[in-house]
Amino acid sequence: MLVHPWDAPEHDDEWRGLLNECDFGQLIAPGGPDRGLPVVIPTPFTFDGEHTVELHLAKPNPIWRALAERPRALLSVVTDYVYVPAAVNAEADVDPALAVPTSYYAAVQAEVDVDIIDDPVDKAAILARALSHFEPAGSMRATPSVEVASDRMLLEGIRGARLTITNVTAKFKYGGNKTVQHRTEIAAALLVRNGPMDAAARGRLLNRRPRIT
């Protein structure tokens, strides 16, 4: 992923914040040298705020074979993506008929070492943390336990994964190479359009420190 200086995270808390906010991504496992293509799995996950990600998947999932071949993977998350029309993206001295559009987005690609979890108690703990994160307040779902027969059956059908982040490439493409005035105009256009992710993208646009004044 190409990251220009003006699109780079301002600090590690920026990419960590994105992983806390956006808890669904793609786990990409390259597998061994004889594998033609990597295995790509869309999946929810939990993040401890520092360097550990946890998730669980069904035992028949093809990613387990790839991880057995090589316990390395890439967790990819992309969010708050919007299209910026040519006329809106154009500098003041550019003819809108010849202007170039762009897209804004936030992306994190985390390189991870993968530990596969098969112990029932440890799997139950991963599920408990996932439920604590995803279930709504007041949820009646009990904490998963190997002492409960129905939970034991569920645990038998899954495997857990603990991902240790070893390196991160992150990009926050929100007009960091534009003047404050132009950024303000783009933010106003997103407010008027009010598309599905325009509000979130507008927030990132306005909250990131401009590189050009």
CATH topology: Pnp Oxidase, Chain A
* Share of helical residues: 25-40%
Principal-axis shape: elongated
Structural class: alpha+beta
Main CATH class: Mainly Beta
Overall radius of gyration: 21 Å
Q: Unreliable runs, pLDDT <50, ≥5 residues?
A: none
Q: Helical segment tally?
A: 7
Largest sheet: 7 strands, antiparallel
Architecture (CATH level 2) name: Roll
Q: Strand portion, in percent?
A: 25-35%
Our count of domains comes out at 1
Q: How many β-strand stretches?
A: 7
Question: What gap, in angstroms, lies between the N and C termini?
Answer: 26 Å
| The CATH superfamily title | Electron Transport, Fmn-binding Protein, Chain A
Describe the strand arrangement of the main beta sheet, using strand numbers: 2-1-5-6-7-4-3
